[in-house]
């Protein structure tokens, strides 16, 4: 009961937040929800199934570029182009997963494989003139006052409630997955792959399902990014920096938990904005300062809270893990 009350209170706060937020704060809230959503998507693959992906920007970039290209070059509305973007990303996830798992690539070597695919795709897209190449792909902005969900054109408030709905949907999906058969299979594979296989679990199929589902969800996030910011560059969409941004929130918040990605996003995004504001207020610019602070935060979490902030906070506020329905912890 306490958990449900806390959930409703948190959701109500997010729903009502724009009423007291100016344009800048609204943009920060959009980024918070966006990172929470992507964190949930990556958490399926790493937190639940134990498969480390450091090239996850591949799937977001593919979803973004495919849907944006259909919109810019052929006038296909974003919602209608979204399935194509997701399908391409899921296919890419299937290729990466099948190659890695079929040949027994595990651990850090699988992570390197995901980086290689992301970097290869980045270089490839830099040499496709119809997608803008290194010069970038620019989406027509249109009106920022209305609400056009079909084309994803409209006021920033529309984008906020859209990404909030996506984040809530990802949370509920992950909660459901943890309570069903595939969720238990993922957790078994994460803890001991050989033991899971001895119990009759099809390890290859379970891991591939995690990669493909995570890829599809990440692609949808990439589409949101493209139509919210209206610009796409290969280094921006497929770069290593984007992959690191995706994984930080669940690691800081708590891998394998439902609240971890949300809490991690709530910590890291305001921290980044505070660093930016502080450096500008002091009148100096230090390249990489935000990344340095993120790295120090990550080191502190690994040192003092190795399970993440949420498991520690859950114990502090007295939530019973048995009643928390976060069986991934």
Low-confidence stretches are 323-327
Q: Approximately how much helix is present in the residues?
A: over 70%
Shape: globular
What strand order characterises the main sheet?
1-4
Written description of the protein model:
- The structure is a single chain.
- The two termini are 19 Å apart.
- Mean pLDDT is 91; it is low at 323-327.
- The chain is 72% helix and 2% strand.
- It has one domain (2-323).
- The radius of gyration is 20 Å and the shape is globular.
- The protein contains 14 helices and 4 strands.
- β2 (147-148) and β3 form a beta hairpin.
- The strands form 2 sheets. The chain has a two-stranded antiparallel ribbon. Strands 2-3 form a two-stranded antiparallel ribbon.
- It is mostly helical and 329 residues long.
- The longest helix is centred in the middle third of the chain and has 27 residues, at 203-229.
Would you summarize the structure shown here?
The chain has 329 residues and is mostly helical. The protein is built from 14 helices and 4 strands.
Element layout with pairings:
Layout (H helix, E strand, L loop, with lengths): L1 H15 L6 H26 L8 H18 L3 H25 L4 H19 L11 E2 L8 E2 L4 E2 L1 H23 L2 H11 L1 H6 L4 H27 L1 E2 L1 H5 L1 H14 L6 H23 L6 H16 L4 H9 L12
Antiparallel strand pairs: 1-4, 2-3
Helix pairs in contact: 2-6, 2-9, 2-11, 2-12, 3-4, 3-9, 4-9, 6-9, 7-9, 11-12, 12-13
């Amino acid at each position: 009961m306490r958990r449900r009350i806390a959930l409703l209170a948190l959701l109500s706060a997010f729903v009502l937040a724009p009423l007291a937020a100016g344009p800048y704060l609204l943009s920060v809230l959009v980024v918070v929800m966006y990172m929470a959503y992507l964190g949930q998507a990556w958490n399926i693959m790493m937190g639940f199934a134990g498969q480390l992906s450091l090239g996850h920007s591949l799937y977001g970039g593919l979803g973004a570029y495919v849907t944006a290209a259909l919109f810019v070059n052929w006038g296909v509305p974003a919602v209608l182009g979204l399935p194509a973007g997701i399908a391409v990303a899921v296919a890419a996830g299937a290729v990466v997963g099948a190659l890695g798992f079929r040949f027994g690539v595990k651990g850090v070597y699988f992570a390197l494989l995901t980086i290689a695919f992301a970097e290869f795709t980045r270089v490839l897209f830099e040499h496709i003139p119809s997608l803008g190449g290194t010069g970038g792909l620019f989406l027509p902005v249109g009106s920022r006052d209305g609400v056009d969900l079909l084309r994803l054109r409209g006021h920033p408030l529309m984008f906020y409630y859209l990404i909030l709905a996506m984040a809530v949907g990802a949370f509920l999906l992950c909660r459901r997955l943890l309570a069903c058969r595939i969720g238990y299979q993922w957790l078994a594979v994460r803890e001991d792959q050989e033991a899971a296989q001895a119990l009759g679990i099809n390890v290859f199929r379970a891991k591939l399902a995690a990669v493909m589902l995570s890829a599809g969800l990440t692609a949808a996030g990439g589409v949101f990014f493209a139509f919210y910011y209206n610009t796409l560059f290969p280094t921006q969409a497929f770069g290593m920096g984007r992959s690191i941004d995706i994984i930080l929130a669940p690691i800081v918040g708590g891998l394998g938990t439902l609240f971890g990605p949300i809490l991690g996003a709530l910590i890291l995004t305001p921290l980044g904005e505070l660093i930016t504001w502080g450096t500008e207020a002091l009148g100096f610019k230090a390249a990489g300062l935000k990344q340095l602070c993120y790295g120090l935060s990550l080191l502190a979490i690994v040192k003092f809270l190795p399970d993440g902030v949420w498991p520690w906070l859950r114990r502090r506020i007295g939530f019973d893990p048995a009643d928390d329905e976060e069986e991934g912890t």
